[in-house]
Design a protein that fits this description.
The structure is a homodimer. By secondary structure, chain A is α+β, with helices and mostly antiparallel strands. Chain A has 24 helices and 28 strands. Chain A folds into 4 domains: 75 residues; 331 residues, Bira Bifunctional Protein, Domain 2 (BirA Bifunctional Protein, domain 2, 2-Layer Sandwich); 86 residues, Signal recognition particle alu RNA binding heterodimer, srp9/1 (2-Layer Sandwich); 107 residues, 3-Layer(aba) Sandwich (Rossmann fold). A 9-stranded mixed sheet of chain A has the order 3-10-11-21-16-15-14-12-13, sandwiched between helices. A 5-stranded mixed sheet of chain A has the order 25-24-26-27-28, sandwiched between helices. A 3-stranded antiparallel sheet of chain A has the order 4-9-8. Chains A, B: InterPro entries: aa-tRNA-synt_IIb, aa-tRNA-synth_II, aa-tRNA-synth_II/BPL/LPL, Anticodon-bd, Anticodon-bd_dom_sf, Gly-tRNA_synthase/POLG2, GlyRS-like_core, tRNA-synt_gly.
Chain lengths: 719, 719
């Protein structure tokens, strides 16, 4: 059950939050161990040399002798500062890739632009907001809606998935069955005096990071211990975490008061359904459960055939203890989840060949454990070598790769990382995360897990409704079945109140165990048998149980399907997309840096701006005409008839990531400008809207437009 | 503040839930009063005639005399049953239009089809569900997503609205400001013994309806009283409701136990944000507040210009006491809301002329009060006559009409009903509901309200952040302003602890009142002045306050914008659309009724099915080829290669409302069939997908396709 806890916690969050995976930490630490050892050696040498100098001075030794000793001391000091500098550099790289300063400055530039242009707004800002809640403002909302439309096209439509839409309010019984009521928790500590709450692992992590980064005097052994602790933080029990907090003397960061012992805090928002107050409900922590509970109807809707996939897009909620990492760790977010149901005995996929030749960064378990880094692998090879468990899982990994890169995620900063054994639920067959590198490190944005039959079984058990599939045989099959029949009367006389435990233990025997028992009973007449639930061994005699094989005719096979679940954190993907799309370039005058988002037209919040070169009624009329055609074609655009300079207007739209701008500089033809190249072509007024529509809908490309239409030098519409 | 309660409660629910508006009840009751009076007369006559017969018999009168009296008695009995039958018919029409039996049977047929084909699924069905929560299954989800896409195109894109996306979890302060925390309540009564909760108005309504429908002996006065009660149910206070429940002796319907007094139950789902438990939050009851709190940023984003509109689509939540009316009154639903901000001094709309000539059913206040019915009015006339308050409100009424009818809502069963004075909030300038007639009666599906400056003022006040707009004057204007300056020192000496109340009351004076005071002070030296907050009158002397007019130069006008709010209950619109689209027709053999949804292609969950006429590899390959082209064109479709008869396959897709079917009956051309006409044409294999795409996207029509391509008799693909 520890694994269950683990898997639930991981599902929509990075496995090593805001930090690196253990393997990366591991490789980096080799260098830092050398340096720390060198520093420690240098420190000893320094101390003994300083002693030597003092002794020489107090014993009034010869000046030349003292000078030589001081020179040696200075050399050691110089060496010390060199080692320290190197160690500092390494520590800063640790956890941040290439120096945390740059990354943070970059992030600040992106986030400033995003907030200033209302991609995001901290929710309820005029009331000073609520941590972990953000609004999408107009351009952000538009990007989100484009991403979701493309998701529907790429997954739901392309794969004929069954999309459903279930409520967020969920009764307790459903989340009891899924394990969330009992296990969806984070460990929390409270300030003993003020009652302020903290995540226990965060405090421990902060302590370790600070120690590692600022305290150069700690030994390499100590450093290794802290790093190991960081890497295994998610595995610690409440007791272990509490012990570490005590051991390190960690106190409340704000008040320096002592802290309570860690205890679990359930991350679901709780509420009450109906007026009586007796019916507990929760805001769903994921959308998947809505699909599982509908399995029977959906299977029937699909003509009682496997495989099929159901999908859902919707809000999910997590009442984080103390949200960090800005837009990546929020209390309400949009998930898009797919549950692909397959026969556990046949996980092939008919369209697998369409993705098998894709090659991209994968980070298999083996490479992580042995301290290597992610490497380019052909997907087909990963599946055929068994690195990826099965074809269907491989197919979805490939489709997710295509989805993300099509949106504009940088291929070089995208990897598929396999879960380590300790990260995975005990029932899971295999699990891969699509991780995207951002200024916060590698972020889990999509989880792709083969969850076997776990979820359907859990709901079958709790609801009493069988969530199974049937395979009808073309002709009946004769099968041999082992039948274990305890003789209850005899067992009752022998074991009295414990009879039930013994009966259950007998019935639960695996085939081999039962056959062994049968052989022993036949040869010796009795056998020692361990009953776990009694915690002891009992003696079973021949007359207590009948074990034999029987032949039966079966017309169908009834089984619980496996589920392969790609689960998309839409907000995280969008945030990473913002970082990957952002760049700056100097203004024409060279006096300032201008911000640009290089969104592909598919994603861009506004596809096109239209403006008259100068304020002029004729030009304005043409601009309005083009705007009307764009609206009719369903192309989102803005018309800007302010008198601002063209350069400023371009800068304004570049910052919103608008890929095309139409400048009306005549009444017959217009200038069409592409955002990133700043190239311009001349297009007839009547054609302008349709050219933009064709590029936006992917029927043509800018390269083709550039080769077809007359070029326009930038002097006419001076930037 | 009573009005506030009213307005909040009405916002997304019908004003006369599952019943008729007072005016309709009023007109119908005239006829029923006549009948009830006739029945009462008949009853008296019957009784005296029966007495007469008894007397004649006991006095041993002549047989002929007795016979004549009995005959008269029988005639009266016959008359009674005729009146009763008429009254029954009228009562059934009341509240249901044309006999509740038919309506209920129709509804049952629609709902059965919807649930069987998974348009809807009661949520968490395997756990026996939760009242008021429904899932959209695959076809329902697709219809919903089509409706929302069209909403975005028709409103957001067409009007360049600023779309935002705010969280559902909302901190208390926001909903305190909006009035929901204090006033968003329904009155509830509890079973004194079991604690079961009921809506007080529901119990009273049920009692009145039952009395009116089943008890024919009540006097016409009593009937009129009950009907009046039904019509004014929403206006009753807790005390009035409680008194009526006592007066009528209403008890708990399930147990017949006595009931508690009515008390308010807040309809918001409450939760707690963060781990401390001290920060109360609610699941938003509407999406509008997210827009209001962002007004300042959105206004700035729009270049500090009015008018502009913001829009939001999202989930909203109401913890109904006991949900009824199936899919119309649910605990979680999707709202699409627009907040159009305008200068209160200029509510014209630039695109108003585009809708002014639309003509449709409107039901102005005057017609309701005078007992007339809704009538066709040209929108332009309604605005110019002042029936609709202003152009912008009129513009949105027109756009809503176009939106609904484009989706497939029947024009004859759609009306725009103006709110009566008692339904409207005190601050509202005007309010119209788009009501759609369904088997439940007329259902409020869209509310279109001019809410004046109420919401922005409420949040300005609570947050301390000014939510205002500026109009910059081209040149400064000289304005005369009244300045009221209380002399605090003198007031303090005179009124001690009450000084603050007096100062505030003086400062709050309207211009006329202040000028009157100034005149009186100048003539008499003192004046009696009522201070509401003290509940008494005080004497103000000349030295206590300076009142005078000052001239000032102003460079701009600062004002709180008015907001015009069209608010769409998406689930209600979709349900009404289902009812309006549903019909049955006999199968070819005539042995059964087949269900059809006549969705327009825009709305249809699946646009096209593709099936081979017979199971045959060549035909299957063609089918798959066409399917691939449809996917590439983004047209949702299903391919059906089961061997079922074509007739059955058509029936199956008709029931899902699929408008087109492609039957592959050769390898060069195919049969394309339209759902409602059942007409068929032959189309080349290569053209099939693009023809379907063009009709679906509105570039061509079936009529045009029918006139272009060769017709196909239905013998080839026998239904």
């Amino acid at each position: 059950m520890l694994h269950l806890l683990h898997s639930l916690r991981l599902k929509a969050r990075p496995s090593f939050p805001s930090s690196l995976s253990p393997s990366v930490i591991f490789t980096r630490s080799m260098a830092s161990i050398d340096l720390r050892n060198a520093l420690s050696d240098n420190q000893s040498a320094l101390e003994s040399q300083a002693n030597a100098v003092r002794q020489l001075k107090s014993s009034a030794a010869a000046k030349s002798e003292i000078d030589a000793a001081v020179e040696a001391l200075n050399a050691l000091k110089l060496e010390k500062s060199t080692i320290e500098r190197e160690l500092h550099a390494l520590i800063n790289a640790d956890g941040n890739g290439e120096g945390s300063g740059n990354k943070e400055a970059f992030r600040q530039a992106v986030v400033n632009t995003l907030e200033r242009r209302l991609f995001y707004i901290p929710s309820f800002k005029i009331y000073r907001g609520v941590a972990g809640l953000y609004d999408y403002g107009p351009p952000g909302c538009s990007v989100k809606s484009n991403v979701l439309s493309f998701w529907r096209q790429h997954f739901v439509l392309e794969e004929n998935m069954l999309e459903v839409d279930c409520p967020c309010v969920t009764p307790e019984v459903v989340l009891k069955a899924s394990g969330h009521v009992d296990k969806f928790t984070d460990l929390m500590v409270k300030d003993d005096k003020t009652g302020t709450c903290y995540r226990a692992d965060h405090l421990l992590k902060d302590f370790c990071n600070e120690k590692l980064q600022k305290d150069l005097t700690i030994s390499s052994e100590k450093a290794a211990e802290l790093k190991h602790l960081l890497a295994t933080l998610d595995d610690l029990s409440a007791e272990e975490l509490g012990a570490k907090i005590k051991e390190f003397g960690i106190v409340a960061p704000d008040t320096k008061n002592p802290l309570s012992d860690p205890y679990p805090f359930n991350l679901m928002f709780q509420t009450s359904i109906g007026p009586s107050g007796s019916s507990t409900g929760y805001m769903r922590p994921e959308t998947a459960q809505g699909i599982f509970v509908n399995f029977r109807d959906l299977y029937y809707y699909n003509g009682s055939k496997l495989p099929f996939a159901a999908a859902q897009i919707g809000q999910a909620f997590r009442n984080e203890i103390s949200p960090r990492q800005g837009l990546l760790r929020v209390r309400e977010f949009t998930l898009a989840e797919i549950e692909h149901f397959v026969d556990p005995e046949d996980k092939s996929h008919p369209k697998y060949s369409e993705v098998a030749d894709l090659e991209f960064f994968m980070f298999p378990r083996q490479e992580q454990v042995s301290g290597q880094s992610a490497k380019r692998i052909r997907l087909g090879e990963a599946v055929s070598k068994g690195i990826v468990n099965n074809e269907t899982l491989g197919y979805f990994i490939g489709r997710v790769y295509l989805f993300l890169t099509h949106l504009g995620i940088d291929k070089e900063r995208l990897r598929f990382r396999q879960h380590l054994a300790n990260e995975m639920a005990h029932y899971a067959a295999d699990c891969w995360d699509a991780e995207i590198e951002s200024s916060y490190g590698w972020i889990e944005c999509v989880g792709i897990a083969d969850r076997s039959a776990y979820d359907l079984r859990a709901h079958s058990e709790k609801s009493g409704v069988q969530l199974v599939a049937q395979e009808k045989f073309s002709e009946p099959k004769e099968v041999e079945k082992l039948v274990i029949a305890p003789v209850k009367k005899v067992l009752g006389q022998a074991f009295k109140g414990s009879q039930k435990n013994v009966v259950e233990a007998l019935e639960a025997m695996k085939e081999k165990e039962a056959l062994d028992m049968k052989a022993t009973l036949e040869s010796k007449g009795e056998v020692e048998f361990e009953v776990c639930t009694l915690g002891k061994t009992v003696t079973i005699t021949k007359n207590m149980v009948n074990i034999q094989k029987e032949k039966k005719k079966e017309h169908q096979r009834v089984f619980t399907p496996s589920v392969i679940e790609p689960s998309f954190g839409i907000g995280r993907i969008i945030y990473c997309l913002f970082e990957h799309s952002f760049y700056t370039r100097p203004s024409k005058a060279g006096d300032e840096q201008l911000n640009v988002f290089r969104f592909p037209p598919l994603v861009a919040p506004i596809k096109c701006t239209v403006f008259p070169l100068v304020q002029n009624q004729k030009f304005e009329e043409v601009a309005k005409l083009i705007s009307k055609s764009l609206t009719a074609a369903g192309i989102s655009h803005r018309i800007d008839i302010t008198g601002t300079s063209i350069g400023k207007r371009y800068a304004r739209t570049d910052e919103l990531g608008v890929p095309f701008a139409i400048t009306v500089d005549s009444t017959t033809s217009v200038t069409l400008r592409e955002r990133d190249s700043k190239d311009q072509v001349r297009v007839d007024v009547e054609k302008a809207a349709s050219v933009v529509r064709e590029i936006t809908e992917g029927q043509t490309t800018w390269a083709h437009v550039w080769s077809t239409f007359p070029h326009q030098s930038s002097t006419a519409t001076d930037e």
